[in-house]
Amino acid sequence: MASLKIWLVIYPSITLFLSLFGENLSVLPLYQRTGILTLCLVPWIVFAGVPFVDFVIRSLTAKKEKI
Questions:
Q1: Domain locations in the chain?
Q2: What does the alpha-carbon distance between residue 8 and residue 28 come to, in Å, rounded to a whole number?
Q3: Strand boundaries in 9-57, DSSP class E
Q4: What pLDDT, in 10s, does the model give residues 11-61?
Q5: Cα–Cα distance measured from residue 62 to residue 65, given in angstroms and rounded to the nearest whole number
Q6: Is the pLDDT of residue 9 over 90?
Q7: Is-contact 49 7, C-beta < 8 A?
Q8: Which of 22, 25, 28, 47 has the highest Cβ tally under 10 A?
Q9: pLDDT at residue 16 in the model
Q10: pLDDT higher than 70, residue 67
Q11: Inter-residue contact 12 to 41 (CB < 8 Å)
Q12: Per-position b or e across 16-46, b if 16+ CB within 10 A of its CB
């Protein structure tokens, strides 16, 4: 379940990041692009994205339990 939650945050985050900044980053070497990508997305995923997915899942399961 943890893997699924993480994937639900990582895939759209990387896709959005690359669609917004991919062209500008394409001039950089791969190691620099990877560094920038991880510097931006790891904190987002750890501190905002996964907790948000957890909140949504808890909210949905709580509603099902009340019914």
A1: 2-66
A2: 28
A3: none
A4: 999 999 999 999 999 999 999 999 999 999 999 999 999 999 999 999 998
A5: 5
A6: yes
A7: no
A8: 25
A9: 96
A10: no
A11: no
A12: ebeeeeeeebeeeeeeebeeebeeebeeebe
Q: Which of residues 1 and 55 earns the better pLDDT score? A: 55
| 25's tokens | 């980053």
Q: Residue 66 has which token pair? A: 């009340």
* Structural tokens at position 60: 């949905």
Exposure of 42 in the CB half-sphere (CA atoms within 13 A): 6
* Token representation of residue 47: 């501190």
* Closest C-alpha to 57, from 13, 19, 5, 17: 5
